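REVIEWER CHECKLIST
Item 1: Sequence provided? yes
Item 2: Single chain? yes
Item 3: Sequence as submitted:
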Amino acid sequence: MEAPVRSRSLIATDALPPLVVDLDGTLVTVDLLQESLLRVATKKPWLLPRVFGSLRHGKAAFKQAVAEYVAIDPAHLPYSEAFLAWLWEQKKRGRELWLVTGSDRRVAEAVADHLGLFDQVLASDGRVNLTGERKAQVLAERFAKRGFVYAGNSWVDVAVWAQAKGAVVVNASPRVRSAAAQTTSVEREFPARSPLRAWLRAIRPHQWAKNLLLFVPLITAHRFLELPLLLTVSLMFLAFSLCSSSVYLLNDLLDLDADRRHPTKKYRPFAAGDLSVSAGLLGTVALLVAAFALAAILGDWAVAGLGGYYALTMVYSWWLKRVVLVDVIALAALYITRVIVGGMVVGIPISQWLLGFAGFVFLSLAFTKRYTELRRATERGVEKAHGRGYLTADLPIIGMCGIAAGFAAVVVLTLYVNSEAVLKLYSSPLLLWLWVPIILYWLCRVWLIAHRGELHDDPVVFAARDPTTYALAAVVVIVLIVAAWVPPTAFPPVIR
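Item 4: Structure as written out by the authors:
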């Protein structure tokens, strides 16, 4: 049984043999079946039994069932840009181009219609699964007289190259490149991008700076020089970092469609096709298991703390981040959770002063994050932030709420440095008044930068990269050390 053909006007040339192009992993950098299955699982999970039930009729029927329930938007797929540009050059030279793929006919024709590049299309049709040996057989019969050059990327394409006059190797591993060279002559090669760099971008180690909040209870309790406690929190820091990276991977997989429509997020590894869906799912599970294994070393409280953080993160990612105002409260709660867990694992109680101050600071920063997103949406002329419940018209209100939360944090700090709790911890408590203008300056500076449109990151990540923040933090720590351990007799009477 022969796979169906969809014909276009042919521009024949005797100079070059027809070029047959694979779709998944070659023309586009992703596996469209994996992505379609992910969309079914996340958006229409009730259809999964029906989809997998189609496997009893073969893989071609399975692909057809998936394509029936999930529409691919070819305009936002991650194409192999250098390879695509070369294909257009070949087209201009009069070369005949075929799109031949194991993907379902609906998917293949949607891509071909969007590009307007291919003369003919061959694809799986619900009965014939056009991959590997079957694809090689079909192409050998169809091009028995003329021969063909095949562009592919995977190990199953070696069987096709064995029937071809030449190979174009795209996004292939060293093993596949070597097999292609041993099978036929290689006409052109388009190397894949480094997966290591893609993984580093995907797990976002720069975001781990947020987990430094775990050390806050040690610092505020003046116990950061106790090595056993420091090692305990350091291990928890690593567990939280691995857990955070697991969540980032999962979120990027769930947000594929939205990210590909975003001006900057479309370059994320999964949206850009630098990493596959299957690799992302495996990475998500592996990082999460490693995180809880580390927490288990520290005991039940550590596991409970990490579990609570992960549960809140998942609820936020799946639901709360789309609920107006609740989202910023939940985001602030995620920051505060780190502080609370940092105290739990070493048995240091968290004071109400610290919770109040941290709560308002992180609420202000959460509003800053939304403010930045809405400002960008306004600049793009969009009325609503994608994936959020906010309108761009909400920008002034979001700014006012965020600034008010920042000033509330400063008020809490002012009350704290004048409280009895300070007298028990510090020898020279009056020095702590220096914290007030420092924190006030930093929060106002963050908002000023956001208002100018110069804040392009998460505000906590911005702080981790900002030299001014480091300088101010150093002053805060120096004031803490001096106020805690330098006797008051070392200062003039006015500040004792």
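Item 5: Key structural point noted by reviewer: DSSP finds 21 helices and seven strands in the chain.
Item 6: Recommendation: ____
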